[in-house]
Amino acid sequence: MFNKQVLPVGDELYIVKRTFPIQQFEPIIREFGAKVVCDNYHCETILKAKDGMYYLCDKIDDAQIV
Asked: pLDDT of 27-48, one tens digit each?
């Protein structure tokens, strides 16, 4: 069973690892930078949504049938 939230962004899909409110997490990103935050939270990217949340995500790569 798949228990992770999946976000469609354009034609790509992302698995959400963590979520934070913008007002809580914005000072952390401003102080340390997105690269350091991604390294420490073990995620590939940070998405900022209109719903007032930051999503720390990993991109779902295209599957290949071998």
From this structure: 999 999 999 999 999 999 999 9
